[in-house]
Design goal:
- The chain has 81 residues and is mainly α.
- The chain has one domain.
- It has three helices and no strands.
- The chain is elongated.
- 17% of the residues are buried.
Amino acid sequence: MKWLPRVRRQHIRSSLAALAAVKSTPRDEGTIATIRTIFRNALAKQWPPIMDRSVAEDLNHKLSQADTICRRAGVPTRVAA
């Protein structure tokens, strides 16, 4: 059985809400805008029962980036969304 990366909508919602609270530095501004757009688009679409591996890996990579940006800014990513 192939391993498929798991992506949870709640994690994306939490990270998106946390990113909204981050005061952008010039260094992060473009990255934050890109991640927000990707997350909003992902949440707007109907999720398939099994997500394509590359899509899931990309979302997990973006979640990791979002969490890092928020952690550097001192904003918790586990906020109610």
